[in-house]
């Protein structure tokens, strides 16, 4: 199944070929997709791109920092650090490895299958 964004871009491209205006395209997409329709500004942006001759409906490659730091190498770094001291908290791990807390949390839960275990000591 196509991603809804890609599907709508294909439809925008089709409507451009039918010589529909950007405003008509917004109206038709909202009629077809309702709440899931692309925003007016996105429709105008893609309408312009297709009007100028663009054929590809996929996003352009972006330069810069990768979307995530959750790489196999970083998973191994977290695993190694935890082997040295299992009492380290999420914040300390993130500080020591220069990673975001969210990335460390994702690695701990989804890659290392760890969960928070809280042991409380009660005096009787």
TrEMBL record:
This is Mos1 transposase HTH domain-containing protein. Pfam families: HTH_32. The lineage of its organism: Eukaryota, Metazoa, Ecdysozoa, Arthropoda, Hexapoda. Gene3D superfamilies: 1.10.10.1450. InterPro entries: Transposase-MT_Hybrid. It comes from the Eukaryota.
């Amino acid at each position: 199944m196509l991603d809804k964004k890609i599907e709508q871009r294909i439809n925008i491209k089709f409507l451009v070929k039918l010589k529909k205006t950007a405003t008509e395209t917004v109206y038709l997409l909202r009629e077809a997709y309702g709440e899931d329709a692309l925003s007016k500004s996105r429709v105008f942006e893609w309408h312009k791109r297709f009007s100028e001759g663009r054929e590809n409906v996929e996003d352009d490659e972006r330069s810069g920092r990768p979307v995530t730091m959750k790489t196999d190498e970083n998973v191994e770094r977290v695993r190694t650090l935890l082997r040295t001291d299992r009492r380290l908290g999420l914040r300390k791990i993130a500080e020591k490895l220069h990673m975001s807390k969210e990335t460390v949390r994702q690695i701990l839960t989804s890659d290392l299958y760890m969960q928070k275990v809280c042991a409380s000591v009660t005096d009787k």
